[in-house]
Design goal:
The protein contains seven helices and five strands; from the N terminus they run αβββααβαβααα. Helix 5 crosses helix 6. About 40% of the residues lie in helices and about 25% in strands. The protein has one domain: Ribonuclease H-like superfamily/Ribonuclease H (Nucleotidyltransferase, domain 5), CATH 3.30.420. A five-stranded mixed sheet has the order 3-2-1-4-5, with helices on both faces.
Length: about 200
């Protein structure tokens, strides 16, 4: 079975964002991480990780309380932050390349509380008038929901513990770390599934 067959022509792509608040249209997007996945011997595995540090868009705001939580200084020169439009375009190019390589039609944003990440990514796309969004407009794969179903808990740290995935609280709330851990959790859940399709592949 190919990756495209397992997900009906869609490609799961793990995404995590770190932000300067909770409003996708008002607060700045600060970090973006993307983990691509591979399908080897009927097993879902981590393939690659890409990360962008993003300079706050001029039309967005920064909430101090959120920065105290994620410990990001948006204006620290050592972040080597790039303009938001550059980061989103690079991210979309990466995902489109993965779609071509895996013969998939659309990416499914996969994340822990995935709609939060999807909203911020979409808001950044709209702010910068970027077209050709490779992600499905509304379908996501949410590891919080999958974890509740599989392990009886939706909190990332506890779900990882129950799945046997190592989780370091000291490294949490970095887009890169959270994306990698979420990818490991997602692969763990999917690889536990006894998926044996008995219906025609075109359905």
């Amino acid at each position: 079975m190919e990756l495209s067959e397992r997900f009906r022509g869609f490609l799961p792509v793990v995404v995590d964002v770190e932000t300067a608040g909770v409003s996708a249209t008002r607060h700045a997007l600060l970090e973006l991480a993307v983990v691509t996945l591979d399908w080897i011997d009927d097993s879902l595995q981590h393939k690659s990780t890409s990360t962008w540090s993003i300079a706050p868009h001029e039309s967005t705001e920064v909430d101090t309380e959120s920065l105290n939580f994620n410990q990001i200084d948006p204006y620290d020169p050592q972040r080597i932050a790039q303009p938001e439009d550059v980061c989103i375009r690079e991210c979309f190019r990466l995902v489109r390349k993965e779609l071509r390589e895996n013969n998939c039609k659309r990416a499914l944003l996969t994340g822990h509380n995935a709609h939060f990440d999807r909203q911020f990514l979409k808001a950044a796309q709209d702010r910068n008038s970027i077209g050709r969004d490779p992600f499905h407009p509304f379908t996501v794969l949410d590891t919080a929901s999958l974890s509740m179903l599989t392990f009886g808990h939706s909190v990332l740290r506890i779900a990882c513990d129950r799945a046997g995935v190592k989780y370091d609280s000291e490294r949490a709330h970095s887009a890169t770390y959270d994306a990698v851990v979420t990818a490991e959790l997602f692969c763990n859940i999917m690889n536990r599934s006894d998926f044996k399709p008995i219906w025609p592949t075109e359905y």
